[in-house]
Amino acid sequence: MTYQQFLSGVPAQRRYWARSHVGWARMAHAEPNAGHRAVAELERAGALHGLVTQNVDGLHQAAGSRAVVDLHGRIDGVVCVGCGQRTSRATLQARLAALNPGFVAAAGDAVEAAPDGDAELAAVDGFELAWCTGCGGVLKPDVVFFGESVPRDRVAEAYAMVDAAGVLLVAGSSLTVMSGLRFVRHAHRHGIPVVIVNRGPTRGDDLADVRVDGGCSEVLTTIARACA
Ligand SMILES: [Zn+2]
């Protein structure tokens, strides 16, 4: 769903939150992997001064990373489109459960199986939305949708992190979206060496000073071991 679709009105928002409510209730709790742990290890060792991530799952913080810019936001957060008030996804989940008792058990399978977009399920039509407790506005997951721009202060924070870096290390991204690639271009323009670790080609390859074609969990774990 794009940002414009989400903002198009209650039917789209109902579809989004009904699916999200079911998915969240059933989501197995994800755990950080070796790559997340290696990045946190590098920060503890003083080798890494900051991290700009395009992931929205919060697993870097769960692994122990501290200086993190969540470029595309966090799926465990909720923001009001009207007044900008932020709340936790867990709080919203409880509110949605209270507004829609038994929804997950009764309609969960049908909602999850529905193609995203045009299916107007009877079950979804009955889903009660929760609104901002501050202003009554529309609640949106605190993630950057397709068609939505990254908040300006967050972009500035990420640029500042790159400017303060001796080296820009790109790990596990093919840099297909401009929101990540612009930092590589910026570093290259300002003489900050760029190291890219990724399995397969990336859109930043011709700007890289060093290019490692490999899995970032393995490569970062090896570097973290050397820095420890
Ligand atoms: Zn609000």
Number of domains: 2
Q: Class of the largest domain, according to the CATH hierarchy? A: Alpha Beta
Radius of gyration in whole Å, from Cα?
20 Å
Task: Count up the helices.
Answer: 10
Low-confidence stretches: none
Percent of sequence in beta strands = 5-15%
CATH H-tier superfamily of the largest domain: TPP-binding domain
Structure class? alpha/beta
Question: How is this fold's topology laid out?
Answer:
Blueprint: H1 3-7, H2 10-26, H3 34-44, E1 51-53, H4 59-63, E2 68-70, E3 73-80, E4 86-88, H5 89-99, H6 103-113, H7 122-125, E5 139-143, H8 152-163, E6 168-171, H9 178-189, E7 194-197, E8 210-212, H10 216-227
Parallel strand pairs: 1-2, 6-7, 7-8
Antiparallel strand pairs: 3-4, 3-5
Helix pairs in contact: 2-6, 3-10
The site of zinc ion has 8 residues, from loops.
Task: Report on the architecture of this protein.
The chain has two domains: 95 residues, no CATH class; 115 residues, 3-Layer(aba) Sandwich (Rossmann fold). The protein has a three-stranded antiparallel β-sheet with strand order 4-3-5. It is elongated. The model has no long low-confidence stretch (mean pLDDT 91). Helix content is 44%, strand content 14%. It is built from ten helices and eight strands. The chain has 228 residues and is an alpha/beta fold. The site of zinc ion has 8 residues, from loops. Zinc ion binds next to loops.
